[in-house]
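Honest question from a wet-lab person: if I give you the sequences of every part of a complex, can you actually get the arrangement of the whole thing, not just the pieces? Trying it with mine:
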Amino acid sequence: MKNYNSEYRKKTRTSAKIFARSLKLHVHGVSHNIRFYEPYPFVVKSSRGKNLVDVDNNKYTDYWMGHWSLILGHGPKNVKESLKKQIDKSWMYGTVNEQTIKLSELISKAVPVAEKIRYVTSGTEATMYAVRLARSVTGRKIIAKIDGGWHGYTSDLLKSVNWPFTESESSGITNEEEIISIPYNNLEGSLKILKKYAKNLAGVIIEPVLGGGGCIPASKEYLKGIQEFIHKNKSLFILDEIVTGFRFRYGCLYPTMKLDPDIVTLGKIVGGGMAIGVMCGKKEIMEYADTARKKKSERSYVGGGTFSANPVSMVSGYAMLSHLKSKKSVYSKINSLGEFARKEIRNVFDGKVVVTGKGSLFMTHFLKDGITEITNAVQAARCDGVMLAKYHFKMIANNGIFFLPGKLGAISDTHSKDDIKKIVLASEDF
Ligand SMILES: Cc1ncc(COP(=O)(O)O)c(C=O)c1O
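Yes, you can. This is the full assembly:
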């Protein structure tokens, strides 16, 4: 196998120097573990449209797209103009502002379950609060998540994220026994576990497309079956649509499957590229967060944060959603580019890969160990992750194409069929 390191090092000399400074100051040189890759990540100086430009002036067609948040590409004009206007007025009030209400009016129309909303500044906070809310409402403690489910860094959900899906991802986590995990797309196996914990089960949190766990859509039957059990058991159904919300259509994915979640978390796209987390849900559940109406022993203290609902994130999210609402053709375009990418990449590798995904999200899995299909994170984890990282790194070093090594790719409105064809050529070369 060709070593692409020397080509990479040659073209990223300035990045190497700057990253050496970063290593002195930041743990492993980064502030988000996944942003590091060997030998060192290139350092970005600017981005526009589909491209990232590094400090050595290399241009990369980007499929990481700001942790998959930039569905209109980098710096879309309407978001930029709205932000400029807001910055002119000021960027931090710490008080009620109409920008928030305008964004909520858009979200509540597009996401029927969003009868009440609370904003935070990251997806992690949104899922952390969703868990707390579920515990408050039910008076129970146990939260079930999916093997391979990723909901951010909250201590409440930092278990069973990576192979072998049995441990916490970190020390320092208390009450680990209150986080249990169930096998994705395996209704019988999941119900068996849920039934065991039913009496103390506060809720189940699920991504309708497993993102970090391998870009794997859940089947409708699976989600419906889980939902039925949860509701019979008087637990809460939390759908984490932080990746999937506004990614495949204007709104969430759950209405397309006729699901009835109690709480939905959003983030990424709805912030238009600015920091955001959204927790929303049915009125009677969200109202447990109402400190004016509930005693401490009954309420759930959720939401808030110095920068919650700051006007910059609100304006940016509003501009993003308004654009998507008025130009729904964005979705047909990027969804069909995703379909094209999955088909063409699969053809190149001729049976040696499975390309998972949905709409504009896709991920290539190099098969091994007799794995032939990928419907859960266990199968994804048993594929050749080293090969995937090499494949992505080769594209960075040789082809000016950027996937965060090992992660799924997200297509934006700024990508074209020719861009996907370039991935296909790079794959043939690999
Ligand atoms: C499904 C899902 N939930 C929650 C999060 C956490 O969001 P954030 O990184 O904004 O804290 C992520 C982040 O990638 C995610 O993919």
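Two things worth pointing out. The chain has two domains: 5-63+328-429, 77-326. The first strand starts at residue 44 and ends at 48.
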